[in-house]
Amino acid sequence: MASEGLKVFSLAYKDIKIEEMANHNDESKEFRTLVEKDLTYLCTFGFEDPLRDDVYDSIMQITTG
User: Fold this and answer.
1) Among 34, 52, 61, 63, which residue's CB has the most CB atoms within a 10 Å radius?
2) Rounded to two decimals, what is the model's pTM?
3) Quick one: which H or E segment has residue 44?
4) CA-to-CA distance for 6 and 14, rounded, in angstroms?
């Protein structure tokens, strides 16, 4: 899909008790490990997201100040 110019996303989930989440700093490596392992895969999909006409002007405004 990506080679065809589509943006590609995969979805997965995991049941986590709120008590488990409350005991972690959500910016910590331990929290990421908790939420990112043992996920249940749902699907992968791609979609078109064409550039808007004003993208070039926006980028130039950001890069040139």
Assistant:
1) 34
2) 0.57
3) strand 40-47
4) 26
H or E stretch at 58: helix 55-64
Is-contact 30 24, C-beta < 8 A? Answer: yes
Task: Give the residue among 39, 44, 42, 43 at the shortest CA–CA distance from 8.
Answer: 44
| Calpha distance 48→13 (Å, rounded) | 24
At 6, which amino acid appears? L
DSSP readout, 17-43?
Answer: -HHHHHTS-TTSHHHHHHHHSSPEEEE
* Tokens 């002007």 found at: 57
Q: Are 50 and 15 in contact (CB under 8 A)?
A: no
